[in-house]
TrEMBL record:
Lineage, uppermost ranks: Bacteria, Bacillati, Actinomycetota, Actinomycetes, Micromonosporales
Organism, as annotated: Micromonospora purpureochromogenes
Family annotation (InterPro entries): DUF6545, MAB_1171c-like
Residues of the DUF6545 domain: 258-398
Region (Disordered): 359-380, 403-424
Record Pfam families: DUF6545
Record's keyword terms, sorted: Membrane, Transmembrane, Transmembrane helix
Comp. bias intervals (Low complexity): 371-380
Keyword Transmembrane helix: yes
Stretches that traverse the bilayer: 36-56, 68-89, 109-129, 149-169, 181-199, 219-241
Annotated protein name in UniProt: DUF6545 domain-containing protein
């Protein structure tokens, strides 16, 4: 297990060198692009930090100070963590507020490194360079404990928490699938970085209490650190090399499959009441799955068009009063924003489907109804329209909308005051 972890770490170090050189080439072409500068600093920092670690005994002897190589490796890791934050901040904006946030993090980094250097200088060495354990290398495999280590772990833990928050927030805004996937990999990598921090603290405590556990705890720490670096490395560079190997096309195809799956329940509900809108017979079972996988783009377009045809056909049975009552009931339940809009739209659509299926007359106030669907309408982007209809489909199946439908009653035959009374 330990040998496998070490081999993995060597592989990650070599990969870091490759990706660092690849991004440095991009930086040479566009040296003024702040996000790329920060990314290159992060990659170079962690690459050199990883490269130092196998050579710590030789470097300490060359520099004449025990653990100085460890200190340099740790400080470079903190530089990389801070640069990763700067990269994510610059990706979301390049205004003065963003630059202030980057400067504050740079100051925090410099203060932390200064504190680490002072504590290192004031802490007596645990052994001499000519100690047999140091000369044989056994010293570097034992759990390490020193005051500066806790400053390092505190700052690194805070940095990884910031990276998780920033990458998660940016992933929700990112439009490109590969960028979104890369940011989620960065989130996962930073989370593993937090596991490394906790593992390191546990290893120190375990090494003091149970010396025999050192090998196991060291393997866990090295594994979590290596996985963290690997995920962040892949995530931060994926948008640039992913299209070269066709990952963007694969991601787009998988995205179309997922979109069709999300739209399918609403499409099926419309089909049951309005079978005439179906463009083609819907294949079922294994044949249906293969049809979706063979051409997911066509299936997604077909589902979208059929749902929109259903909206148009059902509009006479959609009640403006019901929409208003559903919105009022949703606000009382604490809903707001897109959640409220999707739930009220799903409620009106469900009522219209029920009314049409039951042969009820059209709603008397359907002409007062605003245009539906609310999201992605009026010539909006196709992706926005699909995302909105998928949100309505999810709301359509939710227990909240089912309960709301039962409380508000039919789409026709009741005025607004009666519906308000039902949900009081």
């Amino acid at each position: 297990m330990i040998s496998l972890v070490r081999d993995l770490m060597i592989g990650v170090t070599l990969t870091c060198w490759v990706m660092s050189l690849y991004k440095l080439r991009d930086l040479a072409r566009n040296p003024r692009y702040r996000p790329l500068r920060a990314l290159c600093l992060a990659l170079v920092g962690i690459t050199v930090s990883l490269t130092i670690q196998p050579f710590m005994p030789a470097l300490d002897r060359a520099l004449g100070v025990l653990d100085l190589a460890r200190l340099l490796s740790n400080c470079l890791t903190l530089v990389a963590a801070t640069a990763a934050q700067a990269f994510l901040l610059h990706m979301t904006g390049d205004d003065e507020r963003t630059r202030r946030r980057v400067r504050r993090r740079t100051v925090a980094l410099l203060v932390s490194i200064a504190a680490i250097a002072v504590l290192f200088a004031l802490t007596p060495a645990r052994a001499a360079l000519d100690d047999p354990r140091v000369a044989s290398g056994r010293y570097y495999g034992d759990p390490f404990d020193a005051p500066f280590l806790y400053v390092y772990l505190t700052y690194l833990g805070w940095s990884m928490t910031q990276v998780v928050a920033l990458a998660h927030r940016y992933a929700r805004q990112a439009g490109r699938p590969l960028l979104r996937l890369g940011l989620r990999l960065i989130v996962a990598g930073a989370a593993w970085g937090l596991v490394y921090v906790l593992g390191k603290l546990t290893a120190v405590a375990a090494g003091a209490l149970w010396p025999g556990s050192a090998l196991v705890s060291d393997a866990v720490v090295v594994f979590s650190f290596t996985v963290s670096i690997l995920l962040i490395l892949i995530g931060s560079t994926l948008p640039s090399w992913g299209p070269l190997v066709g990952l963007d096309r694969l991601g787009a195809r998988l995205g179309a499959v997922v979109d069709h799956h999300r739209l399918r329940p609403l499409q099926a509900a419309v089909h049951r009441v309005l079978p005439e809108i179906a463009l083609l017979p819907e294949p079922r079972g294994p044949a249906g799955l293969l049809a979706v996988l063979r051409d997911p783009y066509l299936r997604r377009v077909r589902a979208t068009v059929e749902i929109l045809d259903g909206y148009a056909t059902l509009r006479p049975w959609m009640s403006a009063a019901l929409l208003s009552a559903a919105e009022a009931a949703g606000r009382r339940a604490g809903w707001s924003g897109a959640r409220l809009a999707a739930a009220t739209e799903a409620t009106v659509l469900a009522a219209a489907l029920e009314a049409r299926a039951a042969g009820a007359p059209p709603a008397a106030d359907h002409e007062e109804l605003p245009d539906l669907p609310a999201g992605g309408a009026d010539g909006g982007e196709a992706a926005e329209q699909v995302a909105w209809l998928a949100r309505v489909a999810r709301a359509y199946r939710s227990p909240e909308v089912t309960r709301l439908r039962a409380e508000l009653g039919p789409a026709t035959g009741a005025d607004d005051s009666e519906r308000e009374h039902r949900v009081q």
